[in-house]
Design brief:
Elements lengths: L1 H40 L3 H14 L4 H13 L3 H14 L5 H12 L3 H14 L5 H11 L6 H14 L4 H13 L5 H14 L5 H12 L3 H14 L4 H13 L3 H13 L8 H10 L3 H12 L6 H13 L3 H15 L5 H13 L3 H14 L4 H13 L3 H13 L6 H14 L3 H14 L5 H14 L8 H13 L7 H19 L2 H14 L4 H29 L1
């Protein structure tokens, strides 16, 4: 009896050891599969392939491992090897339907939906539609076509009903729901959030949730989830990539640069991401760093049109004009007629910086021709003409800007037009222009100053008594006194005019002197006011002498 019990104990121990071995064996397989899938999701394709290949070598007869090896091969572009691997898996275990589903996945990649369906149906028949992993594999295959989204949703839903604790199943279901028309974002988010709870150290669930909110333009919640993704897994590259795009779209260029740097740190081929990195650096005004990367990109055999474009922009911003001219020539040659308004605008600004204003005018004109909604380009043309003392052309340009009816920068354009008309001595037009400016800017001193000047020219000394210029200068004083500290020059000019008016029209030296005293109260060193007071004093003396002489003549 003792021998029998001893034998039983030995058998139990052997069975327990065998069970433990099988359990550890399965756990090891599962972990290696999970590691490979995670690496693939992180855009670390080579490491994913290495990991699953080692697993397949360690467990050469395991059909499940072979399925995941085939999927990694398929998703990294090696469909030929994937076909061989799936076939090997079927031969090793015909009852394991995963590799049949894997073959269906390959047919979907080849746009052979009919044959793919036959394979998917076969996989479901073999597994009796009771294996959650097979259902998920079929759903993943159907996701490859917009026409089979309903099949993807149906199979993923069945998989989740059988096993609700598999994170990958929840991810596939979420993806299927997002492909529906219209997308079922709320349900997809629930599936992704469940995946994140099941795998808290995997960034995929949070990442997918972030994408849903980013797609719906809820940037704050999108950012929150993408950051959670990088917190859960600091090596999860796709989350950094989306954060870079989100920060770019929300004009947070510094954050975009940092996010993209983290993205590049965690992918296998950071060189492929350098063009975007250079672009983000450019947007963040880190022109030297951007130029350094553009130089590397330009040295490659194949240079994209976008690279030439932003390399040119960055060179202009860095004031490397010789380099910029060379880059624009190459860009123009490659782009042909597809040069945008922004391109010509940069070209114009470069030429303007190089003091080649006449050439800059041509570039700005081409920019406007490329996009007539950009009226500010015509305004640039007007300013260049004004600076170059081509006032008639400046007037033409500014009138063209205003004629478009665009309200953007209308006050500035009216001001510039009025000045050009004034310099051309077209005072009637200038008066009309500055009155329009006064309607737009009733509390600004600028229109009243120029209305006073313009009407002073119209009236001259002969018609000064009409008082039109006087009216505008008085209105100027009224507006300027509100901000007297900032309007000293305007006040001085107005007081001088009114002083002259009192002398010229009213012969009122007292009133004239009172205005000059106001000038000196602002600027005690104003020579014109001093000279005016001196002239008034001399005139008074002369008047007294004349009066005395007149009286003496009467007395005699």
């Amino acid at each position: 009896m003792k021998e029998f019990n001893s034998e039983r104990k030995g058998l139990f121990a052997a069975f327990a050891l065998a069970a433990l071995f099988v359990s550890n064996f399965a756990i090891a397989q599962e972990q290696e599969i999970k590691n490979a899938v995670r690496l693939l999701n992180r855009e670390q394709n080579t490491k994913a392939l290495e990991t699953i290949t080692k697993a397949a070598q360690a467990y050469p007869d395991n059909a499940r491992v072979l399925y995941y090896q085939g999927m990694v091969q398929a998703k990294t572009g090696d469909k030929k090897s994937a076909e061989i691997t799936f076939q090997k898996g079927i031969e090793k275990d015909p009852k394991n339907a995963l590799n049949i589903a894997g073959k269906g996945y390959l047919r979907m990649l080849d746009n052979n939906a009919a044959e793919a369906k036959q394979l998917f149906d076969q996989a479901l028949t073999v597994s009796k539609s009771k294996n959650a992993e097979v259902l998920r594999a079929v759903a993943e295959g159907y996701l490859l076509s917009d026409r089979t989204t309903a099949d993807a949703v149906a199979n993923a839903t069945k998989a989740k009903a059988i096993n609700d604790t598999d994170a990958q199943t929840n991810i596939v279901l979420g993806d299927a729901l997002m492909k529906m028309n219209p997308p079922k974002g709320g349900e997809a988010v629930s599936a992704y959030e469940k995946a994140a709870k099941l795998e808290p150290t995997d960034g995929l669930g949070f990442y997918k949730t972030g994408l849903v909110y980013f797609r719906s333009r809820n940037n704050a919640v999108a950012e929150e989830n993408l950051v959670k993704s990088t917190t859960a897994d600091p090596t999860f590259a796709p989350a950094y990539k989306e954060l870079g795009e989100l920060y770019y779209q929300t004009k947070q260029s510094s954050k975009a640069v940092t996010a993209w740097e983290n993205y590049m740190k965690n992918i296998e081929n950071p060189e492929k991401a350098e063009s975007n990195y250079a672009f983000y650096l450019f947007m963040d005004k880190q022109y030297d760093k951007a130029n350094a990367i553009f130089t590397k990109l330009l040295a490659k055999p194949e240079v994209s049109l976008t690279t030439y474009k932003y390399a040119f922009y960055a060179a202009v911003e860095a004031k490397k004009f010789d380099e910029a001219k060379s880059l624009f020539a190459k860009y123009q040659q490659k782009a042909g007629k597809d040069i945008s308004a922004a391109d010509w605008n940069y070209h114009g600004e470069m030429l303007q910086e190089m003091k080649q204003d006449s050439l800059a005018v041509r570039s700005f004109a081409k920019a406007y021709a490329a996009d007539t909604s950009k009226t500010e380009l015509l305004a640039k043309v007007g300013q260049l003409y004004f600076t170059g003392k081509k006032y008639d052309s400046a007037v033409f340009a500014y009138r063209a800007v205003i004629a478009t009816g665009k309200k953007t920068n209308l006050s500035q354009n009216l001001y510039n037009l009025g000045r050009a008309e004034y310099v051309m001595e077209d005072y009637t037009s200038a008066d009309s222009t500055f009155q329009k400016l006064a309607e737009l800017q009733p509390n600004s001193t600028l229109p009243y100053l120029w209305l006073g000047r313009t009407n002073a020219q119209i009236e001259g000394e002969k018609d000064m008594k009409k008082g039109v210029a006087k009216k505008w200068f008085e209105m100027l004083i009224e507006k300027a006194l509100i901000t007297a500290d900032k309007s000293k020059k305007e006040l001085i000019e107005a007081y001088h005019y009114l002083s002259g008016y009192e002398i010229q029209v009213n012969s009122n030296m007292n009133a004239a002197e009172a205005y000059l005293d106001k000038v000196l109260a602002i600027d005690a060193n104003d020579q014109r006011a001093k000279d005016g007071k001196k002239a008034i004093a001399e005139a008074r003396i002369a008047q007294k002498k004349a009066a005395a002489q007149q009286q003496q003549l009467k007395n005699n």
